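This part of the workshop introduces the protein records we will be handling. The question running through the whole workshop is how a given chain folds. To make this concrete, we reproduce a full record directly below:
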Amino acid sequence: VAEFANELKKSPDTLLEQLKSAGVAKSAASDKLTESDKQHLLSYLQLSHGTNTGERKKITLVKKSTTEIKQADATGKARTIQVEVRKKRTFVRRDDGLDASPGNAPEDSAEQEAQHAATLQIDHVELTRREEEASRQAELIRRQEEELAERRRQREAQEAAAHEAAERAAAAAAAAAAAERAQAQQQAEKAPPVATVDDSAVQAARQAVAQQAEASKLAQQQVQVQAQEKAALDSKKLKDEEQARALDLNARRQKAESEAAAIRLMMSQPGKKLPPKKVEEPKPVAKPVEAAKAGLKGTLHKPAGSPAGAKPAAPGAPAAGAAAGAGKEVKSAKLSSSWAGDPAKKKGIPTRGDTGAGAGRGGNWRGGPRGRRGSNDRGHDDHHQAAPVEVRVLEVHVPETITVAELAHKMAVKASEVIKHLMKLGQMVTINQPLDQDTAMILVEEMGHKAIVAALDDPEAFTDDEVSQQQAESLPRAPVVTVMGHVDHGKTSLLDYIRRTKVASGEAGGITQHIGAYHVETPRGVVSFLDTPGHEAFTAMRARGAQATDIVILVVAADDGVMPQTKEAIKHAKAAGVPIVVAITKVDKPDANPERVKNELVVEDVIPEDFGGSSPFVSVSAKTGLGIDALLEQVLLQAEVLELKAPVDAMAKGLVIEAQLDKGRGPVATVLVQSGTLKTGDVVLAGQTFGRVRAMLDENGKSVKSAGPSIPVEIQGLTEVPQAGDEFMVLSDERRAREIATYRAGKFRHTKLAKQQASKLENMFTDMTAGEVKMVPIIVKA
C-alpha cells in the first residue's frame, strides 16, 4: 500500500480510506495489493467521479474502390469512365455477456458472481452516501421549519404590539376629548350670571363642542384603520412567504424521500443486466430520389437533389427528376456552378454522353460534320448565363522588388491583366520585369486589393541578435576628432605639427586627397584624428567624417576668414550633432585678424564662449606651435564632458573610412573601430563585401595584431573593395557573412534595376548624384 501510495503521490492514510470505501479490506500501509484490488479501486473512483472507462464502443471503416466502365458516346465511339465507389460500415461493440455461448456459462459464473458482489458492495457504499445526504437534507429542512416558526412568533408579537399601540392611541384621544369637554363645562359654570341669555350663542357653543368631539373621534378611527391596514399587509406578506417556503420544503422533502425509496428498492432487488441498445437502422431514402437515380443510371448527369436540398436538377434529366422540381428555379448565391438551369431556355448545355430527350440535335458535343466545332450551336440560342462571382479582397505582401508574374500570382489574376493596368498607369512592362515597391503597392490598390509592406526575409536580423547577446563591460575610450575647414587653411599642417611628422609634403600639391586617419598619444591621453579634404569635390567624404566623429575641430585661417567650405563643414557638424572646437590658424601672419573671424562665425550660429556660447575658440599656429596645447586641452575637456565609453572585450564594429585596390595587396580598407576589439583572423562583413583579416597595419605602416575602440587601422583580406562610409562588423561564422554579403548585393542590384529609367538628355543631370559622376578625359581634334 505504501509503494502504491508513493506512485500515486498520495499519503498512505488517504489511500487506505479510499480502499476501505471501495470495499478492499486493507488496514496497514505494509499490506499487499493485488491487481484485482487495484481494479476495484479504479472502478470505485471512476464510478464516484462519473467517468467512463474510455473504451471504444464503435468503429467506422471506410472502403474506397475505383473501377472503369466503357460506354459509347453520341458518335458511337467508346469512352472510358472512371467510377469511384465509397462504402462506409460502422461496427458497434456488444456486451461480452450476451455474445457468450451457453456452453461457456459455467466457466464464467465465478467471475460474474465476483463482479456482481463488487457491484453490490459499491452500490452499498453509494446507498450509504445517499442516505447520509438525505439525512443532511432532513436536518436542513428541520432547521428551516424552526426558523419559520420563530418568524411566525415574532410576527404575532409585532401584531400584538401594534394593536396595543393603536388601543393606547385611541384611549389617549378619548381622554383628551373628555378633558376638553370638562374644561368647557367648568368655564360655562364659572361665567358670571347675565341678565339675559342669548339662546343662539349657547346653541353655537354646543355645536362647536360637538364638532370638536366628532373630529377627535374621526381622527382616532382613522389612526386605528391605518394601523389595522398596515398590520394586515404585513401579515399577508409574511403568510405568502411562509406558504412559498413551506411548499419548497415539502417539494424537497418529497424529492429526497422518493430518491431514498428508489435507492432502497434498487438495492433490495437482485442485479439485472440491461439489454443492449438496438443499432439504429439507416432511414430509407425517399422514393422519388431513388427513381431519379435509377433514371440517370449510366449517364454523366449530376443527380437531382431532394426538395430539402439546395441543388437543382439537370436540364436534360428524365421526367422522374423533372417532376421533383418542375418549373422552379432555386435562386441562391451559393449555386454558382454550371449545373444551374435557366427557366427561359429549356434546352440546356450539351454534355458528354447526353442521351436524354432534352439533348436533341444539340447533344452532339463534338460538333457538326466535317469537324466544324460549334456548327450545330450557331442556330441555337442556348448561351449559359454565368452566376455572379463574389469579389475577393486579398492582402498582398509587397517586397522591395517583385516581378510582374509574381505580383499577378499573389493577386490570383493573370499577368496580362496586371500588364493592362500598368499600361493604363503609363508603364510598358513585360512579364518578367521587376517593379519597385511603390509602383507595386499603387497597382495593388488600383486593382481593389490591400497592399501590405512585406517583412524583409533579411539574414541581417541574425546579426542584430548576435550583437545583442554580447555582454561586455563598457570602458572609457579615446575621442575621435575630425579636422574640417576650407581648402588650404592649414588642417593637415596642424595635424602634422601634432604628430611631429611630415604628411603635407606627401600629398599632391599639399592638398589632402582622401581621409587620413591617425591616433596620437599625448601626455593627456590618446586622441584619434580624421583629416578630411576641404575642396568642393569632396562633400560626401566630409559628411562621412562628421558621422564617424565625436568632436569637430573647425579650422579657419585668420587672414582668410569664413569661406564656402567652412560653412559647409559647419552644416555637417550641426547635422551630426557633435560639439565644435574652433581653431583659428595662421595667427602669426601680419595680416591676421581673429576678431573678424569670430564675428563671421557668429553670423553662422557658432557662438564663442566669450560671447556666452558653447564653442571654445583657440588661436593656434602650425609653424610656431602657438596654442597647440590649449587646443588639445579643449578637445580632451569636451571628451570628458561627453563621457565616451565602448565595450572592449567584444566583437569589433566600426566604419570604413576609405578603401582602394592595391596592386600588390588587393582590396585594402582603412577602418575605424568604434566598439569591441578587431583581431587578425576575424571574419569581417563590410557592406556588400566580406573576408578574413589577413593583416592589419597602423597609420605608420607597422603591423599590429589587434585594435581597440577609436583606433584606425588598415586591413587586408576582403573579397572586394567596400564603399567608403559602410559599416563593418565581425561575425563568428564565415558562411553567414557570405550569405549576408550576397543578399545585400542582390538587394542593391534589384533596387537599382527597378528604379532604372531611360537615360534622357533632360533628366541626365537632374538624376545624377555625386557617386555616379564619371570623369572621362577626351582630346578634341577638330
Q: What stands out?
A: The longest strand covers residues 58-72. The first helix runs from residue 2 to 8. The chain has a mean pLDDT of 74.
